[in-house]
Amino acid sequence: MQLDQLYQEIILDHYKHPHGRGLRDAEGGANTAEAHHVNPTCGDEVTMRVATDGSVLTDISYDGMGCSISQASASVLHELLSGRRAGEAFEVHEAFVELMSGRGQVTPDEDVLGDGVAFAGVARYPARVKCALLPWMAFKDAAARAGVGVSPEVKA
Amino acid sequence: MTTIAIPPGMPQYDDVPRYDVARVRADFPILDREVNGHRLVYLDSANTSHKPRQVLDVLAEHYAQHNANVSRSVHTLGTEATEAYEGARAKIAAFINAPSPDEVVFTKNSTEAINIVAYAFSNASLRPDADPRFRLGPGDEVVISEMEHHSNIVPWQLLCERTGATLRWFPVTDQGRLDESGLDDLVTERTKIVSLVHMSNILGTVNATARITARVREVGALLLLDCSQSVPHLPMDVVDYDADFIVFTGHKMCGPTGIGVLWGRSELLAAMPPVFGGGSMIETVAMSGSTFAAPPARFEAGTPPIAEAVALGAAVDYLTGIGMRAIQWHEKELTAYALDALATVPDLRIFGPAVPVGRGGTISFALGDVHPHDVGQVLDSLGVQVRVGHHCARPVCTRFGVPATTRASFYLYTTTEEIDALVAGLEQVRKVFS
């Protein structure tokens, strides 16, 4: 397998220059909640915080430490889902989970996943799929705690 | 230069036992394969070792020719299987200089072996007539260290929760050595057992046990040594070490998975209540109650991993044939070479002893701020297999302030060329993540 399938430029860019990193307090009136997830096999950690007015995810902020895949994935998530309506966000979430569970057989839709398509190569590395999903699973928990709906379970 | 290699031609060259690494490598079929288009460079033997043809052949032949259950059949196959199984026990006893094969209990792995001792304490603590050395309660203490594998932490945490005893531990120094400065305050009359790693699976440190053993004897406690990383790599003599228990696992010493060893002094094993109940471990069973077999059978309930035990016996024969002193010396030279080679890599930080003394061939490191997962992934693309993560020794990572490390570990078949491949691979990692 080619290493550059895994470490696409987009992933390395998000890793080296993360977007929206750092936990932020919500603007007045928004409901916030957060979730802290750990990958017990490698010790990667991420905290995702969701701020919502009940229908729009007004901000998704995060902090964490871990490998390039998990940290770039959090940056991409922030980029994709911040400011979106909850329903749309969960569609994107579902598409990302489907991509990562597809063992490299799923062709991602760039219109839905944006920079997330760069993770298509990660799906070929079973040991790294959990790294990519870590922020997305934490986001799902945080969103549920903030009172917005959740997407289907992962079947990885 | 930290190297301790003795150049050929020097008078001391022949003073240490040596073997032909190329010939040893030829015994390991897997070493011929390719990974991701590159020749396999396997630097993960602390995780699991490879198996020589001599062991694989015995495993296959046992099933092909001698397969039967042990200790319960009068027929020929049953007798052959029992003789092979008990023969393996005797080989392993000799390998660690145990006074009797009956002191060797076959387990699934080191983890199970430690749990057997911990649960024997637990069970004894519930029985007023049990040997007081195994009875634990509030006020009693169990001592471990900060450099243990999780398998030598969690069973004792659980035991202390069940009994109300207190868990204490030796700290680790900045150099990755066991900090024995508080020995007399840590191991006291309250201590019932000290369970200590002999060689750290993450730092590579080989602990000097003599002072601790002396203190353990002084206070009347018991001593368990977790030898999972040492028995495969250096000569072990349980009499010389004066331990009460040692544990180790077959798959790290050229044997199969699914077979491990609990060695205990016979008098102690005899004083321990059973842990698993079932077939083979009993003397007599009535509906009103049962009595139990003598060790080692008392601790081997159910059909054991027979072929695996027999193959572990073959692994011990193989290692003995090469010589454990020779293997130890080979790894010492490799470790010196690797420490020198890794010192040339910019931004590389080693966790554990930086000199090839009092340490084995397992080296953990960080490369700048590149995450170990990424280091391991790039190395894998070059065929170099290392372990990344917390190595089931998270307290060590916490101690050194890192979430994870990259670890290269060596064995009798490792070559200096493979260490060169690691160093070249690390350059590639630096390029990708610069």
Automatic annotation (TrEMBL), chain A:
GO terms for biological process: iron-sulfur cluster assembly. SUPFAM superfamilies: SufE/NifU. Gene3D superfamilies: 3.90.1010.10. GO terms for molecular function: iron ion binding; iron-sulfur cluster binding. Residues 7-131 form the NIF system FeS cluster assembly NifU N-terminal domain. InterPro entries: NIF_FeS_clus_asmbl_NifU_N (IPR002871). Pfam families: NifU_N. This is SUF system NifU family Fe-S cluster assembly protein. It comes from Micromonospora musae. The lineage of its organism: Bacteria, Bacillati, Actinomycetota, Actinomycetes, Micromonosporales.
Automatic annotation (TrEMBL), chain B:
InterPro entries: Aminotrans_V_dom, Cys_dSase_SufS, PyrdxlP-dep_Trfase, PyrdxlP-dep_Trfase_major, PyrdxlP-dep_Trfase_small. This is cysteine desulfurase. Its cofactor is pyridoxal 5'-phosphate. The keyword S-adenosyl-L-methionine does not apply. Belongs to the class-V pyridoxal-phosphate-dependent aminotransferase family. Csd subfamily. It catalyses: (sulfur carrier)-H + L-cysteine = (sulfur carrier)-SH + L-alanine. Its EC number is 2.8.1.7. It is an enzyme of class 2 (transferase). Gene3D superfamilies: Aspartate Aminotransferase, domain 1 (3.90.1150.10), Type I PLP-dependent aspartate aminotransferase-like (Major domain) (3.40.640.10). Keywords: Pyridoxal phosphate, Transferase. GO terms for biological process: cysteine metabolic process. It comes from the Bacteria. One of its GO terms (molecular function) is pyridoxal phosphate binding. Residues 41-422 form the Aminotransferase class V domain. Pfam families: Aminotran_5. SUPFAM superfamilies: PLP-dependent transferases.
